[in-house]
């Protein structure tokens, strides 16, 4: 029998935080800084063996190379002007696909594939087609599986466009960041509006159902006026989705970001003003706001999922993907199983050695406790819906849910009440506080004060 839901009076107030917070982005919980080597290849083999034949799974392929390095980027990637390192990596990636496909041995039905990086679009057309063929040979794909590709418009040509269409690309996500030439020069990402429009038109001409544009605020030299101009140009392309990310300035983590002069960066108040203006312009154009930083046309599958309360959050951001299992392929990629997270070796050379020998390239991870699952569910609901149900929390997690519920009660009634309020049986982030939802989510993160990880600004 489910324990009764208890809303308790807090013994003390909890101080609120806001604009200046540095907190995780919560694409997972527990977050990657708390992974450890105690989760290894043996552990993950056991997790794979526990998959059922009809379980739906997703695949993420990380391509760790770019032909130029954008200074704003915080991804695990490296620049190369030669294709030989890419070709070597692809041989190892094929070996990893073969190994994992063999371990699954027909278990798991692929619902979604996501190509990320780095720059997947720097692959040669023949290599793209061979990769698509290898995936379908080693994994069992559902007939309506989606295939998403992160696109750098500067890489694309007719051959690559045709190749991605040939392997079944259903969604194209184009990095825009900002169309202002001064901003582009400051981040080493020069990309004209005409080039971007040409690629959008080209993928649509090849039958791609959904086009997403990634925009950034908080970049060097950005102003409210320049952000508004970029949004206006982006909207003329009528994307099906838009993502509006805050630039994460983490030079201690990515040394190439030291190429950006911090004097050029807007302060926290300016960042907030930029994000709010951009969001308002996008919503005024008829898009629905989803979670913290995504927008979609009302008929888009992500918007439909959000209205049904089924939007999710994973390592690629907001998604309608309901799969409990996400298998990461390539160096640094992170997998999620029912039992926990696992991350591949980051260094490409060491990753290649591991998979070429037939081993899983697992470097570290974390096994979920019931406490992790309860807190992770709350954090995901806050990040996706800005609310969670007290009753559902306890029904799902029993006594552990009750413990987390007590913490939520103290937050809602105490000093952080402006960030989290009790509305009937639901805990809700008020509309005016939603830009700070990462700060609210961090209140439920038991690891945050116990690690050495450093994080980007909340807004």
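-> sequence recovered:
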């Amino acid at each position: 029998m489910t324990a009764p839901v208890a809303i308790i009076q807090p013994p003390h107030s909890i101080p609120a935080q806001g604009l200046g917070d540095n907190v995780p982005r919560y694409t997972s919980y527990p977050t990657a800084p708390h992974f450890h080597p105690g989760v290894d290849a043996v552990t993950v083999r056991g997790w794979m063996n526990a998959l059922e034949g009809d379980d739906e799974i997703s695949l993420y392929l990380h391509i760790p190379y770019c032909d130029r390095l954008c200074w704003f980027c915080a991804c695990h990637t490296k620049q190369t002007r030669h294709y030989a390192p890419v070709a070597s990596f692809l041989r190892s990636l094929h070996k990893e696909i073969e190994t994992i496909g063999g371990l699954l041995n027909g278990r798991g039905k692929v619902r979604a594939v996501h190509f990320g990086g780095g720059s997947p679009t720097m692959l040669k057309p023949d290599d793209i087609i061979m990769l698509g063929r290898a995936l379908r040979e080693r994994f069992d794909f559902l007939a309506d599986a989606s295939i998403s590709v992160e696109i750098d418009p500067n890489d694309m040509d007719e051959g690559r466009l045709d190749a991605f269409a040939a392997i079944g690309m259903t969604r194209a996500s184009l990095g825009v960041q900002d169309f202002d030439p001064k901003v582009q020069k400051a981040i080493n990402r020069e990309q004209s509006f005409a080039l971007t429009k040409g690629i959008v038109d080209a993928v649509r001409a090849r039958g791609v159902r959904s086009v997403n544009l990634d925009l950034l605020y908080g970049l060097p030299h950005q102003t409210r006026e320049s952000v508004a101009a970029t949004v206006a140009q982006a909207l003329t392309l009528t994307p099906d989705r838009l993502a509006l990310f805050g630039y994460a300035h983490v030079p201690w983590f990515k040394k190439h970001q030291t190429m950006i002069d911090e004097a050029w960066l807007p302060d926290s108040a300016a960042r907030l003003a930029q994000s709010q203006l951009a969001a308002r312009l996008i919503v005024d154009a008829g898009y629905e706001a989803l979670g913290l930083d995504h927008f979609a046309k009302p008929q888009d599958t992500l918007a439909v999922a959000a209205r049904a309360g089924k939007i999710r959050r994973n390592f690629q951001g907001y998604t309608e993907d309901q799969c409990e299992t996400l298998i990461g392929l390539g160096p640094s990629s992170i997998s999620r199983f029912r039992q926990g997270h696992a991350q591949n070796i980051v260094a490409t050379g060491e990753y290649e050695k591991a998979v070429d020998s037939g081993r899983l390239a697992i470097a570290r991870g974390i096994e979920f406790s019931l406490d992790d699952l309860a807190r992770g569910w709350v954090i995901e609901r806050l990040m996706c819906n800005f609310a969670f149900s007290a009753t559902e929390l306890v029904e799902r997690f029993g006594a552990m849910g009750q413990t987390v519920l007590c913490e939520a009660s103290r937050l809602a009634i105490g000093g952080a009440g402006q960030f989290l309020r009790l509305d009937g049986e639901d805990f809700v982030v008020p509309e005016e506080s939603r830009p700070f939802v990462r700060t609210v989510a961090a209140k439920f993160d038991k690891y945050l004060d116990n690690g050495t990880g450093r994080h980007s600004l909340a807004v």
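The mean pLDDT is 91.
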